[in-house]
Amino acid sequence: MDTEGQFKGAKVTVIGAAGGIGQPLSLMLKANFKVGKLSLYDVSGTVSGVAMDLSHIDTPAHIEWFTPKNGGLKKALTGSEYVLVPAGVPRKPGMSRNDLFKINAGICAELATAIAEFSPNATTLVISNPVNSTVPVFVEILKRHGVFNARKLFGVTTLDSVRADTFLHRIKPEMKWGLIRVVGGHSGDTIVPLLSTVLGTEMNKVPREKIQAVVHHTQYGGDEVIKAKNGGGSSTLSMAYAANKFFCTVLNGRDQFSKDHVGCTYVCLEDESINGVSELKGLLRTFKKDQNLDMKYFAIPCVFGQHGIERVMYECLEKLHPYEKEMVEICCDSLPGNYEKGLEFTRTY
Predict the structure, then answer these.
(1) Do 150 and 253 belong to one domain?
(2) Coil, strand or helix: which one is 38?
(3) Is 21 annotated as a binding residue?
(4) In contact, 195 and 211? CB cutoff 8 Å
(5) What is the mean pLDDT of residues 87-91?
(6) For residue 347, which phi and psi values (nearest 5 degrees)?
(7) Backbone angles phi, psi at 303, to 5 degrees
(8) 22 is in an annotated binding site
(9) In Å, what is the CA distance from 56 to each residue of 16, 46, 52, 73?
(10) Is 217 an active-site residue?
(11) 63 known member of a binding site
């Protein structure tokens, strides 16, 4: 029920809604009373069954579904305020992120084109992996259509924060939940958990090998899940949980701006009119071997408000533990190669 002065239920589109991430994500979105219409799209006809199943849930969100045969992306996207994109092929045993990108890049470019055409003002959350490379594909395609807004396009990296929180609590169960910042990128050694954000000076009292174990587990937790599922999928449930957690942060920011609506996300650093971006780029130069080159993309805590990103919280990089400083330096060396893959793909698309 919407009344004057209250939050108007948003139209949210999930692209890839019948997949391993899309289904549980859609379930959590249906449970959100701030979602007024939930539009499900998939190339698979099974999305109709997903929609029927969800439509029986006793929450206000109206459910609709589309495939290429009944209106496709045009109907799914038109009027959407938020677009969540878990579409694409999941990583399988023995598959590198480079292999994955070769498959998913074309899918992402096609979807970005549709978003540019049918919901150019939407806030877009990119879940499709490898995020370090797929987000630049979305950025460049949206730029090509003249609708790119750096405040409203996010690579979802929340699973890294979720994992860091989980694994740290196994050795420090007394710590508060949900406060760890994870910066950098969303794969391997580009993932930099800033454990000092919750441990503070206590970090020096925790044995180095335990800190390293938490970091490694966070960076390569996805491989563990793929192995455990034995070819049956990747991190679908935890990813859906993390994506919904981040979406709620963004949505609540639209509802009522406050400093509490903070989440880490992988963003394009091109728009220096966003509060904190120029400071962040300046800080990142100090971690790079070539300090004359700016980082183009980076995952960083952001404050969200009515219009998307209100502020980039660069301060978390100002006082790092020496081990974290080493990790950021490694990230700044590795990450450009990841996002350049996306930029290179779009040059010939």
Answers:
(1) no
(2) strand
(3) yes
(4) yes
(5) 82
(6) -65, -25
(7) -95, 130
(8) yes
(9) 20, 16, 7, 24
(10) no
(11) no
Mean pLDDT of 1-16: 70
The token pair at 324 is 């974290």
Residue 1's pLDDT band (cuts 50, 70, 90): very low
Q: Is the pLDDT of residue 98 over 80?
A: no
The verdict on 104 and 76 lying in the same domain is yes
Please check whether residue 309 lies inside any domain of the structure. Answer: yes
Q: How would you label 281-318 residue by residue, b for 16+ Cβ within 10 Å and e otherwise?
A: bebbeebbeeeeebbbbbbbbbbbbeebbbbbbbebbe
Which region holds residue 248: left if phi is over 0, alpha if psi is between -120 and 50, else beta? alpha
Q: Which of 129, 156, 183 is a domain's end point?
A: 156
Amino acid letter, 56? H
pLDDT in tens, 175-221: 888 889 999 999 999 999 999 999 998 899 999 999 999 999 999 99
pTM of the model: 0.94
Q: Is 128 annotated as a binding residue?
A: yes
Residues 150 and 162 in one domain: no
Choose one of 156, 173, 200: the last residue of a domain: 156
| Count of domains observed in the chain | 2
- C-alpha span between 195 and 199 (Å, rounded): 6
Residue 106 marked in a binding site = no
User: Angle formed by the axes of helices 158-169 and 236-255, to 10°?
Assistant: 110
For residue 128, which amino acid is it?
S
Nearest to 36 by CA among 14, 7, 73, 56: 7
Give 228-256 pLDDT, tens digit per residue: 999 888 999 999 999 999 999 999 998 87
Give me the catalytic one of 169, 186, 216, 217: 186
90 or 76: which leads in pLDDT = 76
Check the annotation: does 20 bind a ligand: yes
- Give the helix/strand (H/E) hosting 337: helix 322-347
- Cα–Cα distance for residue pair 185/157, rounded to 1 Å: 8
Instruction: List Cβ neighbours of 39 (8 Å cut-off, separation of 6 or more).
Output: 11, 12, 13, 14, 64, 65, 66, 75, 76, 77, 80
Residues 151 and 164 in one domain: no
Residue recorded with tokens 């987000």: 135
Q: How many residues does the chain have?
A: 349
- 178 lies in a domain? yes
Q: 23: number of CA atoms within 13 Å, CB side?
A: 13
